[in-house]
Amino acid sequence: MDKQLAAEKFIKLLEIVETLRGPDGCPWDKEQTHESLLPYFLEEAYELMESVDRKDRDTFKEELGDIMLHVVLQAQISRENSGFNISDSLDTVNEKLVHRHPHVFGEKKADAAFHAKQNWEAAKHEEKKRESRLDGVPAALPALVRAQRLQEKAAYAGFDWEKVEEVWDKVHEEIQELKEAQTKNTREYIEEEIGDVLFAIVNLARFLKLPAEDALRKSNQKFTDRFAQVEKELKKRGKTVDKSTLEEMDEIWNAVKNTKVDKIKKLQLGS
Asked: 154 and 230 share a domain?
């Protein structure tokens, strides 16, 4: 990568944003605040995630640029309000990266990714002067993401299962407790046990080194795609979902599912 060229292009972005926010700039850009930009930032972040899921490299490249635009916009607004500027943010992240990687820039050792992240969490805890090792996980995070981050932080502090079989045992234990709660027909009890089942499943995903949020997001998309195929097939038959039987829809659903399975098998066999 040509670092000098990248630096020049980044400076160009800074200048464009400064112009957009200037006296002769864009009315929309000039009226934006830290708060007003947040929904758009979230939208861009989700679009970035979607491009990764779809392995769409061109869109991924574009969305990374949009994220950088938001970073520069937020920094520009702060500078105008006599706050920090983009250089301050860069200083902070550079210092943070060096301090939290003592196995690279210091004397500590990290033989695996887990130990490297363990060093990071310990350094972060020390920097922030937090009381609990679980502090700092935003409450506003999606529940699956937050559950996995809490579990990761506990694991980096040494509070974790030793074998995946133990995690499976916990999953089955929580499912059994949910079944027992259902027989008592108490909404609060059932809700609590469903939460415990989900938390245990997230722990299993973490132990298998899979992001639970990503897995569920992909399953959501898979369900959406398959249901669309069901609707498409019914339309060919001159029918709609609400005018079809469950048996008809299930038949089409299974056909779509089996077609996908057959394609996967062919790919695995190299045919």
From this structure: no
DSSP state of 216: H
Tell me how far apart the alpha carbons of residues 202 and 142 are, in angstroms, rounded to a whole number: 13
Helix, strand and coil percent figures for the chain, each rounded to 5: 75, 0, 25
Compute the distance between CA of residue 119 and CA of residue 126 in angstroms, rounded to an integer. 11
Residue 204 sits in the same domain as residue 217? no
Q: Which helix (H) or strand (E) holds 261?
A: helix 246-269
Q: What CA–CA distance (Å, rounded) separates 63 from 44? A: 7
Q: Is residue 106 part of a domain?
A: no
Same-domain pairing of 190 and 240: no
Distance CA 178, CA 172 (A): 10
User: In this structure, is residue 228 part of a structural domain?
Assistant: yes
pLDDT tens string 212-271: 999 999 999 999 999 999 999 999 999 999 999 999 999 999 998 888 655 544 444 554
Structural domain count of the chain:
3
pTM of the model: 0.66
Give the CA distances from residue 33 to residues 21, 40, 128, 218, in Å, rounded to whole numbers and listed in that order. Answer: 11, 12, 27, 33
| Integer CA distances (angstroms), 227 to 233, 257, 263, in order | 10, 10, 18
Supply the range of the domain harboring residue 72.
3-97
CATH of residue 169: 1.10.287.1080
